[in-house]
Structure formats: structure tokens, C-alpha cells
Records
---
Amino acid sequence: MLIETQHQQLLDEAKKWKDHLKTYVDDINELKNNFYKWAAGKSDHDVLVQIERYHNQFHIQQINLHDLKHSLRLHMQECRLRPDADHVAKHQQLEEQYDFLVNDLDQLKADFIAFTS
């Protein structure tokens, strides 16, 4: 059983992650808008292949962001509904997913900026 401060720390950390992911949603949307402007009129085959790849990656990452935010909301709800339960293992799993996704998103953004420069 978690003491109340540990329980609140889990909730606070999950909320911080969820809020931070919102900034990535905005980033992906901005990158997509810039991408579509940049991609207009491109005709080189190799560039078109990369355009398709980035289009797919942006879409996949939007889904990943949505799914992780949803999982965090469910985790927070479960923590609130069952404060006496041990939520540490689920929290650690979500932290790993969060860290992995943030790393992927940062890498995608860096690769995309390098590609369009």
C-alpha cells in the first residue's frame, strides 16, 4: 500500500507527462503543416519516397501520442478510484513508454528538420 504522498506523486508525475505530451501534439501538427508546404511541387523520386515516409511517421506518432495520453488518463483515474492499490508497476511501465515516445519524437523532429534544410 502506498502512503498518501507517494500516491499523489504518481498522480502528479502522470499529469506532468500527459501535459508535456500535449506540446508534442502541437509540435507534430506544426511540423506537418510545414511539411505540406515544403513538399508541394517536389518531383524527385528519392524526395517523394522520403515525403511518404515522413507523412506516415507523423500519422503514426499522432496515434502513439493519443494512445499514451489515453493510457495515462486511465492510469490516473485508476489511481484516484483505488488509492489503496499498488500502482507502481503500471506507473513504471507508462514511464518507459513515455520516455521511449519522447525520444522517438525528438529524433523524428531532428531528422525532419535536417531533411528539409
---
Amino acid sequence: MAPRSRILAFGTAAALVLAGGACAALVSGIVGEVLTLVLISGGLAAGLLLIFLEIGLEEERDLEREQASRRERERRLLLARRRLRLRRPRRQ
């Protein structure tokens, strides 16, 4: 997830919570209560989901780094084995 997208997504979630707070203060009656409940709940739920998304993406990046380092170690080991084979004269 690009940094700009991340900021936009978390900003939108925060804006929903703030809009819900504004509705609580400015809109009276049942409509204000419903808007407050929906906006604040939606904003908090979106924020929580985004946090879980970030955790999942970080785990994916860690796994990719681990696999890349494993491939690099295997490549180095293979090259070292090939060099050893080339240096040793074969017995006849």
C-alpha cells in the first residue's frame, strides 16, 4: 500500500469519526443519534480494519524478504559447490 493511499485511508476513517462527533453536537433528535452512531462506528471499524491490513502487509513483506535471503543463500551455496567441483581433479 502506497504511503499516499495509507494516509488517505486513515484520514478518511478519522474524518468519519470527527463527522460523527460533529453530528452529535449539531444534529438533535433520533436522526442525530443514528448519524453519530453510524459515522463513529464506521470510522472506528475502518481504522481497525486498516490496522489489520497494515499488519498483514508487513508480514507479507517480511516473508518475501526471508524467501529472498533464502534464495540468495542457496544460490551462493550452489556456486560454492560448483567451484569446488571445478577445482578438484577427477579420479579415473
---
Amino acid sequence: MKRHQNLLLLIAVVLLAALPLWLVERPLGPDGQPAEIFGGADSQAQALITRIAPDYQPWFQPLLEPASGEIASLLFALQAALGAGFIGYYLGCARTREKLRREQRRGEAAARREDEDQEGPAC
């Protein structure tokens, strides 16, 4: 029973995540053509700059232009994954370092107590 309940909950979560992406209608842009649903701020800023200053020339060109939006999304996801991996690695190292310091302090305190017990009471 519990196994079927977990499976149903998993299916419900996947549907809740995927259905809105399928059911959303594609909006029309200012030119009447279908616009990007999940367009980024870069393209919106570029369109606004073109509208404000049509003769604007960019200061530089990208060194590498992705072949498609999917590749750009892949590169962005890869960058995010590498950043998250680096942060997770750093936090794990910092936590382990602190844990080892605490254990070392406990060991030193236990050794001091053991030395005091062997010396006997101070008079």
C-alpha cells in the first residue's frame, strides 16, 4: 500500500511540474508573431535598447555564439551545476574541518583530564 501511495505521489508531482508547461498558451509579441514564453531578460533588454536608440552599436561581440537556444540553456545549466558543486564542496570541506577541530579539542581535553586523574588530588 505504502509503495503504491509513494508512486502516485511521485506521478502527481511530475504532472504538477509538467502540465503547466504544456498548457500555457504562447503569447503574441508586439509584431504579432508568437513570442518566447520563457525568454530571458537579455533579449528584453536588447529589444528595449533597439527601440530607444536604433543606431546603438554594441561595444564588443561574444567570443562564442551558441548555435541555438537549447545549447545556450545547456551551457547556463552547466554553469549553474558547476557553481552549485563548488559551493557544496566548499561547505562540505568547511564542515569536515570544523568537525575535526572539535574532535581534536575533545581529545586534548580528555588527555588533560586523564593526566590530572593520574597525578591525584592537588593539596
---
Amino acid sequence: MKVFVVFNAYVGSYEVSGRIGELKSIDGVKSVEAMERVAGEVPRYCLAFEIDDETAQKTGEKLKQTLGQYSSYMSNVVWGAYKKIG
């Protein structure tokens, strides 16, 4: 399953990408990719997570809890979980 979190941040790209190690250490997270917008009318940053389907609910809750620690640095936060259909 893939989880995408898009947001603006009151910190720079270095600080956003510097949190990847902490996010990768969450049980059930297979990979994390930090991306920065180059075009479009979307928030500046996107974190793309690949998580285990079997532990998706538990992992998702832990992701929300961890990202909540940084809520004072983030705005326009939206997230969604997607499963592969084709």
C-alpha cells in the first residue's frame, strides 16, 4: 500500500529530507521518499510511503502520530492511502 502526505513547511528541503531516517524506522514502513514540487498547484512537499498491507492500520496510526510531532512546522497537510488496482 502507498501513503502520500502532501504539505507546505515552514522549514527548508534539507530539514524535510532529514526526517526520512526516523520515518523509515517505523514498523511496517518499507520505504519513504521525500519529493519537492516543481510544477502545479499543490503543496510544496510530498512524502511517499510504501507500507505493509497487513499492518496498514497500525502503521498508518504511527505515521500520523509521528508526523503530528511536526505539526507546528507544517500547513495545508493532506494525506491519502492507496492500494494497487492494476
